[in-house]
Predict the 3D structure of the following.
Amino acid sequence: MLLKVNNDYFSLEKIIRDKCGKKYSLLERFFKKNFGSSRYRLINIFPKHKEIDLHNYNDCIFLNFDLRKDGLVFYFRYKNTEYVEFCPFYSLKFQSNDKSFVIQTDKYTYSFEIMNEKKHKDFILNIYKFKNGLD
């Protein structure tokens, strides 16, 4: 679910926590070896979002993914507005090749450029572990 982050951050965090689980503490991140992902560049959102037009936008949008117990969360900024996408693992689908990473959530499909291939491979393995409950 793609939402605009506004001033009511605590209610938004509750919605994300209900769908994807709470944020891991620093100690939990060390024990589970969950440090999120390396950096990716957002290339496309399909179907077109009414407020986000990446085809006529010249700046690059970079982001990192955060793995939680039950889902995947990522934040990005478009024209000084912050957006958050969160998706539980049961409705997450992804595809990866040499330079491209595609994630399909419940409503949108995102295309990303892989900036670091080695760290991307580690991140994909972490997604499989978390999705299958092997963490």
Remarks:
- Helices lie at 9-20, 26-32, 117-131.
